[in-house]
Amino acid sequence: MKNILFVCTGNTCRSPMAEAILKHKGKDIFNVKSAGVFANNGSPAHPHAVQVLKDRDISVDHRSQALDKSLIDWADLILTMTENHKQLLCGQYPESIDKTYTLKEFILLGKDEEEQWKQIKKKTADLLEKQSKLMNKKGDVKPNKDQAEREKKLRESIEKDMEIVRELEAKFPNLDINDPFGGSVEDYEQACREIEDLIEKLVKNF
Questions:
Q1: 127-180, pLDDT tens digit by residue?
Q2: Which of 83, 61, 67, 76 is nearest to 35 (CA)?
Q3: Helix (H) and strand (E) counts for the chain?
Q4: What residue ranges are annotated as transmembrane (predicted)?
Q5: Domain boundaries, the chain
Q6: What is the SS3 assignment for 15?
Q7: What is the per-residue pLDDT across 179-189, written as a single tens digit (0 to 9) for each?
Q8: What is the pTM of this model?
Q9: Domain 2-109+174-205: what homologous superfamily?
């Protein structure tokens, strides 16, 4: 059976719901765990999360846990709730890049779209690195006229490339699942419904 790890922020809302749903719908196919990139160990699932799962006749006995290397090594597939979770995770554990996706990315994008999305994100990371280097140069000695002109052209080039990246990203669906934390039961219901629909596709595809 495949080991699947769901990841969100605090491991009390989205990823516990995903874990409980997949355990319920795919118990003979997957081993399932969840964790949070900024989780405190030992917190229960949010009461609203427990309620919307109970409405589906899904029980949950959950205690939050922080993401760590042992969980990364355990997982065959890591599914995050947002692109930011994915970037944080892969930045800390680069060895996990090839097995880490957002849940929506893994389910909704075809192979060609997935490759395009990866290229867009790589381009974004490269541009942000250039931008950071440019900003760090501001602390250096005052540049001469030629250096100032080169920096100006570099800034203009970065801004132009970032605009291209934003246009490309706009062609893709939103690959994040909104965080219901602090919201109403209805907000949790909406998040749970979205997660459930994706997990049903996940089980069907396997």
A1: 767 777 777 665 555 667 777 787 888 788 888 877 876 776 677 778 899 999
A2: 67
A3: 8, 4
A4: none
A5: 2-109+174-205, 111-170
A6: helix
A7: 999 999 999 99
A8: 0.77
A9: Response regulator (3.40.50.2300)
